[in-house]
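F.,

This is the one I mentioned.
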């Protein structure tokens, strides 16, 4: 909590804890892809709407792909990127969500117990995934899983190789690339 108060006192947080479009409790129109390239584009549009020239981006899980795409396509808009448990290049652990991608949308209401299943009863995990409960939540999770595309970042390292900007590393650490 102290860290959160310190961050709030120093930074403007336009959407603290916000979900990506089509994830968690956020909705989107049918037929609109919720892939990470679209998410990156929408984040830039949000900065425009808020009148922010640059932003520090904190990303988690597959949202880190959107942050990396944002950094690669609009580096002048990104002050810094913090990645928590993210993806890199084509390493997206797609096998972990294969069963969700293959799930029959007709049975979307039965999906919620699957990502919550664990050998331990973890109430915080269940609470975090509650947005995917029921028909609408299950359908939202299936759709989001099906729109994930590791090809969107498989060559992302090339975008960082020739320029002086932070480059994500495979273990989540960022390193500076020097330009001669």
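My design for it:
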């Amino acid at each position: 909590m102290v860290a959160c108060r310190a961050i709030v006192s120093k930074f403007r947080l336009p959407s603290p804890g916000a979900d990506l479009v089509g994830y968690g409790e956020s909705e989107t129109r049918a037929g609109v892809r919720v892939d990470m390239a679209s998410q990156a584009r929408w984040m830039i549009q949000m900065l425009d709407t808020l009148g922010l020239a640059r932003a520090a981006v904190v990303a988690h899980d597959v949202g880190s792909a959107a942050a990396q795409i944002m950094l690669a396509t609009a580096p002048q808009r990104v002050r810094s990127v913090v990645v928590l448990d993210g993806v890199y290049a084509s390493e997206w652990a797609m096998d972990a969500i294969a069963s969700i991608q293959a799930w029959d949308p007709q049975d979307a209401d039965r999906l919620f117990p699957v990502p919550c299943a664990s050998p331990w009863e973890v109430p915080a995990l269940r609470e975090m995934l509650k947005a995917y409960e029921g028909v609408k939540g299950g359908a939202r999770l299936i759709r989001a899983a099906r729109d994930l595309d590791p090809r969107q970042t498989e060559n992302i390292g090339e975008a960082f190789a020739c320029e002086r900007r932070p480059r994500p590393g495979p273990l989540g650490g960022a390193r500076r690339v020097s330009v001669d």
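The two ends are 43 Å apart (CA to CA).

Talk soon.
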